[in-house]
What we know:
Elements: H1 2-7, E1 11-12, H2 14-28, E2 30-32, E3 36-39, H3 40-56, H4 66-88, H5 98-114, H6 116-126, H7 130-156, H8 161-164, H9 167-179, H10 181-188, H11 201-204, H12 212-228, H13 232-235, H14 242-252, E4 254-255, H15 257-262, H16 277-312, H17 323-340
Antiparallel strand pairs: 1-4, 2-3
Helix pairs in contact: 2-16, 3-4, 3-5, 3-6, 3-7, 4-5, 4-9, 4-10, 7-9, 7-12, 7-16, 9-12, 12-16
Amino acid sequence: xxxxxxxxxIFSSYILASAADLTExxxxxxxxxxxxxIAVIAVVHAVRISIVxxxxxxxxxxxxxxxxxxVLNMVVLFGGSTLxxxxxxxxxxxxxxxxxxxVYSTVHASLYLSGLGTMLVHLHTxxxxxxxxxxxxxxxxxxTEAIASYGLVQMEQHSSPSxxxxxxxxxxxxxxxxxxxxxxxxxxxxxxxxxGFVTPPWVERPTMLLNxxxxxxxxxxxxxxxxxxxxxxxxxxxxxPHHRVSDVFARFLSVHPTWRAAEKPLQHLRSVPYLSMREAxxxxxxxxxxxxxxxxxxxxxxxxxxxxxxxAVPRRGRAPKSKKEAVSIVEALEVEAAATGxxxxxxxxxxxxxxxxxxx
Length: 360
């Protein structure tokens, strides 16, 4: 009983547990249990990766042939995990994932040949930023699962104790799994018809390494490690005592039934994780989604305000390019004059280019 109790987290939540059950159901739901035992979310993610491949290679102006586009599709899928495998000295995921290669390649080739891929790219362009906000949820779900089930597991099972216990190594692994593929693509120009190694732009401009994909991976690793590590409470001792952190969590979460039955005060619980892994994944998915969606929302709001300000204020200081523009400016000035009581000044007439003709 002591061993079971020691493995139980301090807190639990009905909402987080229900969301975890839903997430596990999504991953286990197959297209058909007999004829096509492939998870529905895997097919959805394959479509998402195909869209990313088309956008990376130029979108509607993509010039990549089918096979080259399929190779780029595999780089987008396995690029980050391949870098992780090379750094940790383990087997490459692409060598042990024949089913994933078949599914993602078939989906991408089908969209490429049928023209549906081009239609999806058009739809993505026409419905921005709403499509990006929706697809960010798919990215957050799949990337968090990859970091938790592959990256952190490989770290914990590493033969070197210094690597297995290194938090910095976990940050690097999480960042590469989430956004490592663009680093490879830009270094070898894999999104162009002719490949070649060049100085990557993220080397010339290191600020590009602070993009939302890499930062999101580090946020997921930090969240999972802090919520599930048995000794996480000692990491925040320099910020606040352990019982204060537990008291904050207790406002939003319920104490696990094991510790509630034991009637043990929170400040006496040591070397016990705050949450279980399945519930911590839900918190990490939400954190990843916020990191991915926040720049999209902020950029859209700023672009909307910019367009609104350009439409509201008429342009002055230059001649209008056409008669229609001159009429619209005059009308705007008349409305402004009616509101302020100041006489409107008409806009100058458009100037004709070229030398005037000589009178004969």
